[in-house]
Amino acid sequence: MISPGLPDIFSAGRETARLLVAPTDLRATDPMEGEDLLSDRFCFQGETLETNGKPPFSCAMPDDAFLREMARFSWLRHFRTQDSSAANEKARASVLSFLRRHRRISGPCWQTDVASQRLLAWLSHSTVVLKGADTQFYRRFAEAILRHERILRQRYKTMPDDENRLIAAIALCMVSICMDMPEKRRRQASRRLDAALDRQVLPDGGHITRNPQTLLNVLFSLLPLRQTYINLDLTLPKRLVPAIDRIYPALRFFRHADGNLALFNGNGATLATDLSAIMRYDETGGTAFKALPHNGYHRLQGNGTVLITDAGKPFSPHLSKTAHAGALSFEMSSGRSRFIVNAGVPNSSDAEMLRMARSTAAHSAVTLGETSSVRFSHSAFLGPVAIGGIRNTGAERSTGDDGTDTVDLWHDGYLGTFGVYCLRRISLSPDGQVIAGSDRFDRKNGEAPSPENRTAAIVRFHLHPSVWALRENEHSIFLTAPDNESWLFSAPGLQVEIEEDLFFASNAGLTRSQQITVSSVIGDQSQIDWRFERQS
């Protein structure tokens, strides 16, 4: 079975493995980016490379992050918008440039996640690359695909369980059915994927990274794989469809009313077109879950008000490399606008900025003594893993007689440094008009901290950049969104300030914003009460 546009070419002396089908890439294409590529202009990570007609991989790259993005080849999809022989030639020249420049399996281009995504991109956009190609290029391209498959199979056995391993399993499964490979290899790839899905997609649909963005990334690979199996009339891996059916409700769980995903544990800017493209294939329907108990998140919702809160911790030391110190943080949206957010992750390779984004202070949570509830290593050998702080977390959900939905959360991240547990209670009234919150600090024996324990506590509420904040009085802040949805924040008897802030997760890059801070001193006051009320 040969897909339209895929030439069935064989070398004169020996048969070349055939490419049977090109899977669909569900990501949105952009004609403007396609025109830039035709003009030898590559724009990634806020940087631009103009090749001026030279082979792109022979040019000096702005940095390694840019090189990795180039080497993923996901940008090939934008050539589809041009529909010209010039676009096919440019795509082919780019692949040849990579094959000539990066034959050695080393460096940023051959990191496993980059190689897996490149393999998927070459398969998905093989029609663009191969249209008008001669026999020699076809053979070289097919051999390069098979070389990637061999390398990923060799590496797979020793890869740690994370998103990269799952994407590698998907890529190996995809190549096993897109290329004319032995049935034994296909069965092996199917079993490998089933095992990876079993380990990484939790019963509630969340992923073991606890990053909402990972769910989107995984679906972008799983959905085309499912459709390719169906198109070829092959038996699907047993765990493929059940995993997709679990992931969709979890993805809906993390969506705010404006359609964006909550910013927890490594999630940054998400293109609305990407999320919309994925949600079009949602066959599970229904409303969002109230909790993802295995992933450690809770959602309170009523009358257009949505709160999503983090009640968990990393599942392993390895997975803590991408985790954030955001336990007990929450986000809130109302109407069509996000009001309270976390700062998100910058679209940048700047190490200092990434460290800032992972800190507790970059989340709508409590910070004690200007330290984070999780401490991360700066060791080049260990990597940015958690080396201290939170060991245990917990959450309890209850409903009051009047229908008020309440979640009680706690963590022990400050027990070793300041001798207290952090406890947060968030309640949403049944009509969605009032959010009542409190942050409490208890010693190990359950008693309030002593007057000698004079530790500074700051509760931060990061505002979305679109929200306008105006001081109402000493203890209250009036908040308004572009659609005129308005809320009044108050913390009676406490020091409430509006301060400058940075929002990392904007598609436009680093964006100035504001935050509300409520300051207190443990020992003087063991509980901080605060409140949001919707304004008519």
Provide a descriptive summary of the structure in words.
The protein is elongated. Helix 7 (about 165-180) packs parallel to helix 9 and helix 9 packs antiparallel against helix 10 (about 240-255). About 30% of the residues lie in helices and about 25% in strands. Strand 11 (about 395-400) and strand 12 (about 405-410) form a beta hairpin. With about 525 residues, the chain is α+β, with helices and mostly antiparallel strands. The protein has 2 domains: about 30-280, Alpha/alpha barrel (Glycosyltransferase), CATH 1.50.10; about 295-535, Beta-galactosidase, Chain A, domain 5 (Distorted Sandwich), CATH 2.70.98.70. The longest helix is centred in the first third of the chain and has 22 residues, at about 135-155. Strands 3, 4, 5, 6, 7, 8, 15, 19 and 20 form a 9-stranded antiparallel beta sheet that branches. The chain has an 8-stranded antiparallel beta sheet with strand order 11-12-13-14-21-18-17-16, with no helix packed on it. It is built from 13 helices and 21 strands. It holds the Pfam family Hepar_II_III_C. It is found in: Cell envelope. This is Putative heparinase superfamily protein. Its main location: other.
Per-chain topology:
Blueprint: H1 31-38, E1 41-44, E2 47-50, H2 64-72, H3 85-101, H4 112-124, H5 126-130, H6 135-156, H7 163-178, H8 183-200, H9 212-231, H10 240-253, H11 272-279, E3 291-292, E4 297-302, E5 305-310, E6 330-334, E7 337-341, H12 351-358, E8 366-368, E9 374-376, E10 386-389, E11 393-399, E12 405-411, H13 415-418, E13 421-428, E14 434-442, E15 455-463, E16 468-473, E17 476-480, E18 486-490, E19 495-503, E20 511-522, E21 527-535
Antiparallel strand pairs: 1-2, 3-4, 4-5, 5-6, 6-7, 7-15, 8-15, 9-10, 11-12, 12-13, 13-14, 14-21, 15-20, 16-17, 17-18, 18-21, 19-20
Helix pairs in contact: 2-4, 4-6, 4-7, 6-7, 7-8, 7-9, 9-10
Pfam families: Hepar_II_III_C (PF07940)
Domain Heparinase II/III-like C-terminal: 286-530
GO molecular function, one term: lyase activity
